Every structure is written in structure tokens, then in C-alpha cells.
Amino acid sequence: MTENTKSLVWFWDALDAYLSRHQLKQTKQRKIIVSYFLKLSKHVDAEVLYRKVRGGGNKIGLATVYRTLNLLKDAGLVDQHSFADGRAIFEISRPGMHHDHLVCVGCGRIDEFENAEIELLQKKIALERAYVLTSHRLDLYGRCKSCQT
Ligand SMILES: [Zn+2]
Ligand SMILES: [Zn+2]
User: Fold this and answer.
1) Shared-domain flag, residues 52 and 20
2) Ligand 1 center to residue 114 CA distance, Å?
3) Ligand 1 center to residue 32 CA distance, Å?
């Protein structure tokens, strides 16, 4: 077990708990898809995940990949982002952790940022309008360094 996989034991535990709470079985296909998902980089494109799974010699359909990702979403284990370029991007949702995104319209690169001032400003805006914030999403679009030439 690699260091990376080991630190994600909580993910598997939470998934098992969710499945048993909903009287669902952990299927072999689901397990394969989740393993590949966890091995990919932070922001996982569903189609890229599908190609990786197929490339590994697994006969699993794209619909099954989407079903599994949606299940992880329902379980609160992943967040889905729909960036302006139409790709469905999934990433692990870590409780209490938050970040925003910079998306390159040239190559699709995704960077993360956190800015205390922006976070505070958003809370201030909500407060002024008597909202209690439950979540927010902030995506900035532009061209990354290598796409500016
Ligand atoms: Zn770029
Ligand atoms: Zn992210």
C-alpha cells in the first residue's frame, strides 16, 4: 500500500458506511472505479477516469463510471464541478476544507487557491443581506502562463 492510498483509508471506510446504511453492496466494478479515481490527480475528469479504467483492461462502461461518481457525490465524498468548458470534474470532498479554482480556458488546467480576504468578504456580503451561508463556489477563468503565448 502506498502512502497516498493509506492516507485515504478514511475514504473507503466512509464509503463502506454509506453503502451499508443504504443497504447497497460494494461491487467489484465500483471498487475498481473508486481505486482509479483515488489514484488520479485532484481534479478528475469523468471521461479521463473512464479511459484509465478501460486502459487497465476493465470492461466497464462510461455509464457505470458516472453512476459510481454520482454515488460518491450522494455520499458526500466527492464534489462535482461544472466548469464553463462543460467537463464534469470530480474531486474528493474533505470535511471542513475549502478552496476555490482558477481554470485555464486554453488547456483546461485547474489551480486551487484560498484567500482569507475573499472568504471574509463573501461572509460580509451575505450578512448584509441577512443570509446564513451554507456554501459557495468561486471559479476564475483565464489563460495560464503557458497558454499566453
Ligand atoms: Zn493553459
Ligand atoms: Zn479543487
Assistant:
1) yes
2) 20
3) 31
Ligand nearest to the CA of 113: 2
Q: Which H or E run includes 42?
A: none
Reported as a single tens digit per residue, the pLDDT across 48-90 is 999 999 999 999 999 999 999 999 999 999 999 988 778 889 9
Same domain, 10 and 78: yes
Structural domain containing residue 123: 100-147
- Helix crossing, 62-74 with 28-39: angle to 10°? 80
How far apart CA 122 and CA 53 sit, in angstroms, is 40
Write out pLDDT tens, residues 103-129: 999 998 999 999 999 999 999 999 999
pLDDT of residue 78: 95
Residue 91 Cα, ligand 1 centroid: separation in angstroms? 20
Q: What is the CATH number of the domain that holds 136?
A: 3.30.1490.190
For residue 55, what is the domain's CATH number? 1.10.10.10
Q: How far is the CA of 67 from the centre of ligand 2 (A)?
A: 21
